[in-house]
Design goal:
Elements (H helix, E strand, L loop, with lengths): L1 H66 L8 H23 L8 H25 L3 H56 L1 H25 L12
Amino acid sequence: MFSGRIRFLLILALLASNLLVGVLSLVFLRSMDQRYGALLDRSIPPINSLRTLTRELGSVQRLARRIVDPAKETAWNDLVTQMDDLSNTAKAHAREVSAMELFKDTRHVAALRKISTEYDDDADRFLLLVRGGKLADANQFNADVLRPCYDNYQLILDAAADYVQRQGADLRVRYTEDSRMFGGFLMAFAGWPVIAAAALILIMGLLAAGLLLAVFFPRLFVRPQHAR
């Protein structure tokens, strides 16, 4: 009767522990899904914006090369307008990137704003020479000023992209460590029946050893009588 009740309680405890492990696993997996979703929402928009900005700047530079050689262009005036518009768009886009939450309180904010202003100003000076008919001077300005500024711009964009990737990698490492710790906890918790069985076997072994000692070596359990 008593052993049957103990067996019933052990079965209930085992079922309850398995249910708890399942619930904890579900909660943890849902939490990890939300955290990885937040990681993607935090990292992907800046990366996409940086790539778009890189393409826009590359287009500006290609237009600059085409503008200084009007003989090969049938719609030369349109190129000047396109470069001006695209340069302004790139500057506005750079400001939007620098205002993203991921870059808050980092050196990339000031660097992006500074280089975007410099490049847009240099593009305006280039176009001013072009509109004045000074194509040779504009070509030299492109080689000496605008192109080097563009190269520096690209270095700053690369640094910002590296920062985004490092932030994502650090978070992934942290999430992996959390998963490993939680997995170890679940394994330890789920293994309590084995631990309980091992403890029971150990206790039964100690009791059996004590019983054998009491039977075969009773003197070990008898206090010596002191003579009066």
